[in-house]
Amino acid sequence: MSSPILSATNLQKTFGDLVVVKGVSLNLDEGEFVSLVGKSGSGKTTLLSLLSTLELPTSGAVTLCGKDIVRASEEELALFRRANIGFIFQSFHLIPTLTAWENVAAPLFPEPMTQQARREKAVALLERMQLGHRLEHLPGALSGGEKQRVAIARALVNNPKIIFADEPTGNLDSQTGQSIMKTLHSVNKEQNVTVLMVTHDMELAQNADRTLHMHDGAIQ
Amino acid sequence: MQLLSVCSEIRLRWRRHFTAIMGLAVGVCLLLVLNALSGAYKEATRIPLQDVGADISIQRNGDVPEELNGVVFSCSAITIRHDEIEAVRSMSGVRSVAQAVLLWVFQDDKFAMVLGIEPENPLGPGRLKNYMVRGAYLKSGKQQALLDESFARDQGVDVGDKVTVAGRDFSVVGLVAASQAPKMVLAHVYIPLEDAQSLAAESKGVQTVSPFSLQDANVLFLTADQEAIPALSASLRTALGDKAAISTPETFLRKLGTLFALSDRFAAAIGLIVLGVTFLLVLKTVAGSIQERAREIAVLKCLGWTNGNLRKQITAETLAQCLLAAAFGVVLAGIACWVLSFQTLDILIPWEMSPTPHFLPGGGEPVFRTVHLPVGLSLPALGIAFVLALGVGSLVSLFCTGRITKIKPSEVLRHE
């Protein structure tokens, strides 16, 4: 049996006296689509931050793609994210001053490659997302669904091993949400990319390979 | 660093950067204009001497003639001895020397200012050649004279006639527009130097007040190495004594008074204040921009941008902003200088340097040389403006980019 791509052991996170994540342990296998559900304030987003290297746990260990991320420096973590992780946010978080293709290419900007190569990569992904006609549009000129598809393309541009999606359909109508989920599932299947998706929508969660329930900072 | 996103940032968020860019542009403009103005005043004060091709003029003050009769010296131009002239010629920094002898000649009920000049010397009164109205120019050793055209008209004399100076006849070979010629060589009659020296040497009125021999003069014009002028001025004073009137561009500069003093003395101080204010303005804008863009910065960190990548990006944006501001500032300064170049400046020529007897019409009244302010932007000043703007940008980046490390994506994005 292969080792999990993500492994968390006894993770704990406190803010002052408040314990937000309580002794969470979990494993995610390569190519798995896992949803994380729970009520608002249950600690889902904090756990996602801990697992995705954006935040360090108060105690416990996280190994992601074979790297012990708790001991890594901020610089190492940034480079690690660039090489291994894709992010999709509820509010899309596109850079408003960059066009669609530039947004997709944003993770590649610090990479030593030509602008032409960056553009080609970004354009290919946007075409795959049926956004070939929106390459030069600024985010302000895109619909919610289009923005999220640009965000998915951005999450894929560095060929990540894992994607962390925080309520990816939270700001979309149900039809667009379903279309986004379809895209996410196809990325998961076709590219064998592991996906950990935070959602409070049980219907969406049920489409995942596995669903983790979070309550009061702990996985149940 | 992404040039693409630097341009997009400034282009699409121009409102955010406008205040800083314009503030810095005005600062750069002010610095350049103050510098140009200060330079222009200095340049303008060279003009009265440049009119006669000189950097320094020398005269010596003496006593008032006992009697206004025959050939006399003005009290502002008495004898400079031959040995003194030779000493001046051999001083370090002196390139060339022109001599002249200025005489006041009273005969019967008439008066004439007579200037003995070296016709072949391009320095000093030799420049009269450029103001010829009619006839030929003066030649040495031929008892010739040039007359001011108004004087000639008043006297009813024309080219080809004779003019008598202290009992000696001179052939009038040409007329000059003396009123347009440099004020420092203003005269009615111009004769060869040796003739003027001879007239002065033979004059009892001159000898009584100031002993004069054939090779002496009473006005000198010098060209000198520019950087040597201040030191040379001091050496000349030592060599020629306290009564020597040594005029340099600095002499005219002092006479300009408050306006120049203010612009020159405070140019550096104002420049520093302006720089300080614009630094604070840019600092405020960039710091504010980082604060406002915390979410973007957090997202870029999520996407794998290191603090170093982000620092470079913000620095590039700040420097681009400052370069743009410098370019705007240069354009504004260019326009301001162009407008200022239409301004005229009246430079007072001290009476002593153009001595006209008080009994003549206009005699004793202040004489001015009116010049257009030679305001212009020099290449080194432009270079300095850009370097200063980049300096402001670099310093601001240094102060501000530290904030980037404090932005934690998990904290910023949690609130979204």
Give an overview in words.
The complex is a heterodimer of chains A (220) and B (416). Chain A has seven helices and ten strands. Chain A is α/β, with parallel strands linked by helices. Chain A has a single domain, classed as 3-Layer(aba) Sandwich (Rossmann fold). In chain A, helix 4 crosses helix 5 and helix 5 packs parallel to helix 6. The longest helix of chain A is centred in the C-terminal third of the chain and has 18 residues. In chain B, helix 1 packs across helix 12, helix 2 crosses helix 12 and helix 2 packs antiparallel against helix 13. The relative contact order of chain B is 0.19. The model of chain B has no long low-confidence stretch (mean pLDDT 85). The chains are: A alpha/beta (220), B alpha+beta (416).
Oligomer, anyone?
heterodimer
What level of helicity do the residues of chain B show? Answer: 40-55%
- Share of β-strand residues of chain A: 25-35%
Query: Cα-atom Rg of chain A, whole angstroms?
Result: 17 Å
Tally of separate domains of chain A = 1
CATH fold annotation of chain A: Rossmann fold
Strand runs of chain A, count: 10
Uncertain segments of chain A are none
Structural class of chain B: alpha+beta
Let me know the average pLDDT of chain A. Answer: 91
Mean pLDDT of chain B: 85
Largest interface: A-B, 34 and 28 residues
Write the H/E string of chain A, N to C: EEEHEEHEHHHEHEHEE
The shape of chain A is globular
Low-pLDDT segments, ≥5 res of chain B: none
Give structural attributes.
A: 220 residues; alpha/beta; Rossmann fold; 6-stranded mixed beta sheet; B: alpha+beta; two-stranded antiparallel ribbon; 15 helices; 13 strands
